[in-house]
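Lay summary. Proteins are chains of building blocks that fold into shapes, and those shapes determine what they do. In this project we predict the shape from the chain. Here is one chain we studied, written as its sequence of building blocks.
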Amino acid sequence: MTTDTPDAGLSPRFPALGILVIIGGMLLAIWIGFGHALFGISGDLSLLFVLMAAVVVTLQLFLGRAVILTARHGYRTRPRTMVIITLGWACGVLFGLTVPDVTSHGPQTILTGSHEPALGIAIGVTNPAGIICLGLTIAALVLAHGDARGGRPRYDEDAILDAQGL
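And here is the predicted shape, written in a compact code that computers can read:
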């Protein structure tokens, strides 16, 4: 069994991708926590959005750290990890657009305002988008930690057979 380890001759890489993940995650958290204020529809649920943003930024910081560790160990972040990160961000942006806030004019979203039936549709999209965002972020975190360890061990069957004298 052979594995690529940091002492196996792999040189560390510049962690630009990890820095990008951290910056993108922070922007996503700002969008979720304070996006309503940018459009003037801050309401009674604003504190709840800030708390949700704290969870998102914490997960994104751990995710960025894992991508940076991958680069420091000389490994590459797999494309599927980056695709899952990007899809999670897209769901987070959709969540920020469609999550309703209760104002003096009733519930409103950034995308629809207080106009029915679009408001009802936006509210129906919000929960799945938020859940998928968190689920994809956790999945990306698991994959990124796997990338930081070098992925799966690679078995060289010929070397194993030669070592056994077969």
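What the prediction tells us: Residues 16-149 form one domain.
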